[in-house]
Amino acid sequence: MRNSSSYLAASAILMSCVVNIAAAAPPSAATLERGRYLMNGVVACANCHMARGPKGEYLMDKGLSGGMPFDDRMFKAYAPNITQDGETGIGRLTDAQLAKAIREGIRPDGSVIGPPMPIEFYRHISDDDLAAIIAVLKVEPAVRSAVPKSRFNFALPPAYGPPVMSVKAPSRADKVKYGEYLVAIGHCMECHTQRDQKGMLLMSSLGSGGRVFPGPWGESVSRNLTTHESGLKGWSDAQISKAVRAGVNRDGAPYKPPMAFQHYQNIDDADMAAITAYLRTLPPRPFGK
Ligand code: HEC
Ligand code: HEC
């Protein structure tokens, strides 16, 4: 994230980036392929926005029409319908409006999108990757399905930061930096990092895990991804890859949700290697600290 010298300068740059995104239509096959690769892989929007049946199973024919409830001490949120339906979905949003919703958490009416939509992390999505994701959303079929409104027992912030200017992904040649980018847009740290009383991420605990996720599966606790003994210190690259992509631990036992293993299995080898390279740079931190 960069500091904007003035709001006007920031919005001028934002406008130019908006124009770039809008000008990308109609999307090329390569753009759609990139968007699908991200969404079926590390970005995993469907892990929250996919319609689900009573046992949490995906309802494939209902696509990203949402409805999944998120119960928290501080809120009861529902994943909205993000299909092209004009009334119950996002069919009326322009590309620029969608970009602002996804990357900045601000809807066209100015209201702010609340948790657990991981806006803090989506602020890092590059212009190209964002355009690719939006291109995919636009070609998916419209599904009519009204979702209840979320309730938050606290005031949402007026914004998650200054307007996002143009974002460029780091070069793949820099494996660690590109891995950091993938971990950001995959919002891995949303679950693997502690938060303070105000709900802000505790950067001093980045990657140390210890967050509890109750659900139909009982309870799962996010693990320590740092280089500490209680983390990934003794793990081989192959074991880390197997945990993330196959969803099994070093003894071959399956992990519980809500980590998006069904999607992460599609992360390609180069991206998995970059993610692992980045995780290996996390300073050792005790579990959950
Ligand atoms: C961890 C769960 C989660 C993930 C992952 C997630 N979302 Fe969301 N999203 C939500 C929730 C919950 C809301 C609604 C929050 C609220 O009601 O304020 C939301 C809101 C939205 C909205 C606003 C829709 C509206 O009508 O207000 C859009 C657009 C959206 N998400 C798109 C995406 C896209 C695209 C991705 C992947 C790049 C994604 N989301 C990933 C949970 C998630
Ligand atoms: C929605 C929350 C969530 C997200 C997002 C998430 N994780 Fe996890 N992760 C968990 C939980 C919970 C566990 C433990 C599951 C269990 O114990 O059954 C876990 C386990 C792991 C493990 C196993 C480590 C060990 O010590 O056993 C690794 C590695 C891991 N996650 C890496 C990642 C990476 C890399 C990403 C991003 C690409 C990611 N996680 C995204 C919640 C999440």
From TrEMBL:
Domain (Cytochrome c): residue spans on this chain: 30-141, 174-283
Gene Ontology MF terms: electron transfer activity; heme binding; metal ion binding
Protein name, UniProt field: Cytochrome c
Transmembrane segments: none
Signal peptide: 1-24
Family annotation (SUPFAM superfamilies): Cytochrome c
Keywords per UniProt: Heme, Iron, Metal-binding, Signal
Highest taxon, organism lineage: Bacteria
InterPro entries reported for this sequence: Cyt_c-like_dom, Cyt_c-like_dom_sf, Cytochrome_c-type_DH
